[in-house]
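Protein record

Derive tokens from sequence
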Amino acid sequence: MDIPSIKIRFVEKLKLYHDYLSPNSVWETQKKDYWKHEKIILLWAFSDLHEHLYSSVDTNRLLEIYSLDKEGEEINSCSGQFIELQEKMNIDYREEMNNLKQDLKLNSGKEIGKLNFVKGNLVVKEFAVVTEEGSPRDSQSPPKRIRINAKGLLLGEMLYEAHSNNTKSYFCNFRIYKMAMGLLWSLFLIAIGIIVMQLIVLIVEIY
């Protein structure tokens, strides 16, 4: 008989913070160029703008999240999902979102190509699954379509907690996860200190 897996959401989120969102993570330091777009997509996926969770997304659909067409031109300039998503975010994150969108518009050829490979990155990080493969003649080509999975939605929830315009103060900029990581490291150091002290006492008693 299989024992069901019991998952504690905060612990899952804490691990995601440590691996992907902490200031020292490889994604926030060395590999952040595509990661910035990946976070926008996961944030959108968690929001109420993405209700059909079973549906797949391709590059054109990712562009629609930014209210852009495949030529990098604005669509639905006065409305659309990008505006709706921005309205849910705080001022600082709205500015970051706007900068990413402007990069897509001004450098449409190169930057829009990024979105094509963003899909593959999300799959590698296990935030999405492939629903339609890329070119069968090129094993390195990114998937054509992906579906955001539960892990991706969970990270999107963390981003929403940290950057939404009605976030609680202890969630702002991942504050609660930073404090939890600090507490864990403190407990770890205390445990090491206790072990060292016990060893010293034992050595003194022996000699």
Remarks:
- The two ends are 52 Å apart (CA to CA).
